[in-house]
Amino acid sequence: MKTLSYWLLVLILCASSSTAAPPGAPVDPDEKQWAAAHAKFVEFITPILTEARARLNDPKIQWAMVRNDLLRKHLPDVRLYIRDGAYSGETKIWIVSRDGKIHDLGDGTWVGVGGNQWSAVEKVAAYVRGRKIKVQTPEQAVEVAKLVESLAQSPSFVGMLRLNTRDYTVFDENFLKWMYGGSKDHHWKYTATAKESGGFQVKVEYVGPPASIQQPPTYDVLLDDQNHFTDLRRVR
């Protein structure tokens, strides 16, 4: 299981459809369009789930929608969906737009590039690049790094929740508070510094109580000549 993201995500498991509006209630055109986009994704993902369940011998593989504040801020016009279950090289992350277009973001695995000089999540970074996000301050550099992390790590977030709830059947309040409580966010410190060559370097440090953890990453945030995000490279 990949490392969990370092900040609170709000997960909406979408195993069942939402409650229908009462008869005669006014129909929100925006929600009607999103309902059509959602239905298109369900039609798209259903055979993928069927194949994955059989191939991975896991009949409980499911899809989910993931939301968080970074997505609401930077990607308010799209929705993030994932497939849980084992990593096997197939896509696990999709962005769905209001018009029903489905964007493939890969599985979020960091892969060595340039003879392993750095690692990247190329499909995720390419999508974020297309959003033309301005990065002019260290705070904005940290935020865009967290956004890429959030997208890339969303299947792991859902997978860890599935594992520790026994396929969403046992919800231990102590575990949920420890893993997803707001205080956990304070265990990680993100620091960005401008690079002489352009862009920023973002360093992640663990500052919580003693624990056995993986080495936190260090990222290079690359920008174009107009200070738009172009790539996030994990250099350590």
What can you see in these coordinates?
The chain is of the alpha+beta class and 236 residues long. The protein has one domain. Helix content is 33%, strand content 23%. It is built from five helices and eleven strands. The strands form three sheets. It has a five-stranded antiparallel β-sheet with strand order 1-2-3-4-5, sandwiched between helices. Strands 8-9-10-11 form a four-stranded antiparallel β-sheet. The model is unreliable at 1-20 (pLDDT under 50).
- The helix tally amounts to 5
General shape: globular
Query: Which oligomeric state applies?
Result: single chain
Q: Give the class from helix and strand content and strand pairing.
A: alpha+beta
Rg (CA only): 19 Å
Could you tell me the strand content as a percent range? 15-25%
Distance between the termini: 20 Å
